[in-house]
Amino acid sequence: MGVVGVIIPATSSYLNDSARLKLDAQRQEVELQQKADDLRLKQSEMERSRDATRVKFLQDHIDMIMSDEPDVELRLAALARLVLPADADALIAQVHTIRRELASQRSGAQDTNITSMAQHDSAEEERSVPPLVVTPRAVSASEYQQSTSGMAEGRAYAKKGDYESALRSFNIAVAQDPNDPLSWNFKAYSEFRTKQFSAALASISRAWKLNPSENRTRRWVVINATKILCAQGRSSEAATFFNQSASVVPEIVTDVYGDGEFHSTCQAIWQG
Description:
single chain; mainly alpha; Serine Threonine Protein Phosphatase 5, Tetratricopeptide repeat; 12 helices; flat
């Protein structure tokens, strides 16, 4: 009995030590996870801050960026290396992208007059040839005509400022082709203009999730999404979304430069 009395306390002590070690290990694991989460949060905040700083630089120097003077890009590069040396390479690349897009737009405007006559000559021939449409499913001619007419009618109404009629047309367009981000973008903007902000956010979210590959459509979606968030009073989310998007597609900054509606709707975040 004396031997048993010695063994039992020893076993109990061993179990207590094992449980304590296990608890200590779990506690350390929780602490390490918390530190990792804190580090990721700080890194995320730093990234958002850097995005905002880069966009602010583009906003502050937008007049120089849009200038057609040949040495502007070199001056901006020197300025970026002086003001934001850590982000200079990214900024220089963004400035180059913006100016290349502007040059392309200016060149396109000049070429329009030259090519307009040739386009007019071939217009009659093109009208007689039905468009070749590649879709994930077969659609009837009437379905395609209704979808394209919905887009055309919607845009025509929008140009006249009749956004209620435009919305009805865009509803037809998205019903016929629910995988077209451009249709969802126009639908969202019409809802925004008719102050249906919750519906507008749902529509623009759908457009964004469809991941538009066409550059101009992607820029429109970003700008309209930012406007909708601003209209809902979600300025912080709007600023984060816009800055992150502009860091990837810097042309967005020049797009909104002359957009009075963007400035008035998002005056809490726009500093241009």
